[in-house]
Amino acid sequence: MKIAFDPDVIRYLSITDMVHKISEMGFKYIEQSPHPQILPFYKHPKASKEIIAEYKKALKETGVSISSMIPIYNWSGPEEERRQAAVKNWKRAIEIAVELDVNVMNTELAGDPHQPVICEEMFYKSMEELLPIFEREGIRLDIQSHPYDFCENGNETVDIVKSFRSNHVKYLYCAAHTFFYDNGAGDVAGMLDYAGDDLSHVIIADTLNQTKNCRYIVNPPGVSATVHQHVGLGEGDVNFDAFFQKLREMKFAQRDDTIASVSLFGFPEKMAYQGPETLARIKKELL
User: How far is residue 201 from each of residues 31, 249, 257, measured CA to CA in Å?
Assistant: First the structure.
């Protein structure tokens, strides 16, 4: 198992400083999330020759490696023109991953929860075009459902992943999305069990249960939106004792192909201690 750090919370740093900061916190791997100079959210990849060279130099200086890259595109949106643009972006992102010697990419289902059938059709249409490229390049695609995707349910997303019957498509469980996955029940162990051997990737961060009455107050009432956090372990409602216990039972950390990514957002001032603390907790629980 590789333990990685998602640098979204420190993406205000230069590429070089970002990599060095992650190394200073004790991490050996980076899960490169959308970054304005590399893979911006929803837009065409921007990684220039200069940025790639700077990134490789920083990796060499620190001994850090990239475990995985996260492109986020609306490849399942209901509009065909936008879907085609997203697939084009994906193809360029795959080229960048190959250039950086990355063999895992992870992403979200995306789309629109109000048009789930159309969006699922668009998603499969995009995958029909992209899966042969992933297989050709030897890249594994780890898929999660994200709040406000066309599918938010965890077990249903597992079924979607399994439907491809490909060793290059696996399931990602994000702890910070736990209460979206099963409508607030928070049955972490049950959902991990359901994923079984297709679970190859976990994202570790806490969150509050958004289904609790008045946990969040959003105006105007009834607005179409979702709210969640990626906060430090113990600051939310996720049952991490059950989470780590189930991963131990599944021998998740004993597999060479698995990734556990620390993905804490919103509080860059806490990273100097929360990053190392979370790394130490993962090592204690799983290694």
Answer: 11, 15, 9
pLDDT at 28: 98
Helix extents (H) in the chain: 15-24, 49-62, 80-99, 116-137, 154-163, 178-181, 188-195, 240-249, 271-286
At 60-74, the pLDDT tens digits run: 999 999 999 999 999
For the segment(s) 2-286, the CATH number from 3.20.20.150, 3.60.10.10, 3.40.720.10, 2.60.40.10 is 3.20.20.150
Output the CA–CA distances (angstroms, integers) from residue 60 to 6, 17, 39, 54, 276, in the order listed.
19, 13, 21, 10, 22
Answer yes or no: are the C-beta atoms of 21 and 61 closer than 8 Å.
Answer: no
| Token output for 10 | 């420190």
Mean pLDDT across 182-201: 98
**Crossing angle of helices 80-99/116-137, nearest 10°?**
30
Angle, helices 188-195/240-249, rounded to nearest 10 degrees: 30
Q: What is the pLDDT of residue 217?
A: 83
The values of phi and psi at residue 259, to 5°, are -135, 135
Residue of 44, 22, 49 whose CA lies nearest to 34: 44
Tens-place pLDDT, residues 91-139: 999 999 999 999 999 999 999 999 999 999 999 999 999 999 999 999 9
pLDDT score of 218: 82
